[in-house]
Amino acid sequence: xxxxxxxxxxxxxxxxxxxxxxxxxxxxxxxxxxxxxxxxxxxxxxxxxxxxxxxxxxxxxxxxxxxxxxxxxxxxxxxxxxxxxxxxxxxxxxxxxxxxxxxxxxxxxxxxxxxxxxxxxxxxxxxxxxxxxxxxxxxxxxxxxxxxxxxxxxxxxxxxxxxxxxxxxxxxxxxxxxxxxxxxxxxxxxxxxxxxxxxxxxxxxxxxxxxxxxxxxxxxxxxxxxxxxxxxxxxxxxxxxxxxxxxxxxxxxxxxxxxxxxxxxxxxxxxxxxxxxxxxxxxxxxxxxxxxxxxxxxxxxxxxxxxxxxxxxxxxxxxxxxxxxxxxxxxxxxxxxxxxxxxxxxxxxxxxxxxxxxxxxxxxxxxxxxxxxxxxxxxxxxxxxxxxxxxxxxxxxxxxxxxxxxxxxxxxxxxxxxxxxxxxxxxxxxxxxxxxxxxxxxxxxxxxxxxxxxxxxxxxx
Length: 461
Description:
This protein is mainly alpha-helical. The protein has 16 helices and eleven strands. 26% of the residues are buried.
């Protein structure tokens, strides 16, 4: 199994209160992690830029102008060619040098000469509405299919309202010639419709550009630009959304883009199972009292009998250090191939539930630890305001909490990877490393949740 290059996942914390009196160190907390991770001495550093809409427009227009001059075509035609060839000016120029007409035909900008001659020999009648028109009242592009302006307007209006822009085609039968921007705008006069057309066109151009990616954050106008298209982590400085540059999904290292898509699709198909696990509570294995997990750590202590156990396997935590490898590894039935189809289906579901429960558990732990982080910050600010030390004295606890968050995020995405990983020595090594990380993460989580901020200088990591 091949996996795309990726680095460790980490999302920024929720924005703090904007009130300066309540959040003295808000700016520090908000930007600290992003600034730390973007240092170029970091072996996992990924270079990217945050662009505004006007910056992207300028970039695209520079490419259009360069191609227009190079092969002597109109800017509108140059934009169609670039969109069809992933905005590589040099690729279009090289193809143009080989065979100019072939380039245009393949790009759905010009049809064959035979088609053009056949269409131009017709009388001046719009073949859509069948109304006679003067010669100069019919209009079209290089394919030779000519229709009245009213029919063109209706055609464009319907297509644009359906979200079509760069893929607008000629109305001619079996003609897939693309409509250049200048022709469309010469026909469409409604300002609102023109704006929609240009907005959809801009979105299409960004999506077709290998160096550009829209930030998936809600209502975020930022466009990310990176020199190489890799499955690397990007953190938007404006909305703090963390995502994979290659696929645009939530960052998912060490799982590759195609694998995480398969996993998310499977989780969606088994949504009822996911809902059950998400809402599921467990009983204490010693006194059977019902327990709901309210912290990120899997090291649980029953409030009634004080029994320490593992939330995932319900095993005694005292012996858990030596057995953690077994807790995080799925034990397959070695004779499953000889079992009935029903037994194999039941085993497949059992395997999926094993990995999904751990995936879901870490996702919930991240949310719970996010709440714990806010409480830690509030207590630190309270101590600082009471002159019980400075924020530097309490920095060790924030560093530990941030490290915990980073490791747990990565650990969550090891389970989809392990689910699809074929049996063998590679999987055994991966599961051993996964179990080692899991044990350290739970140990750190236990200490962070129970750390006393008054114990200055005590390291919890």
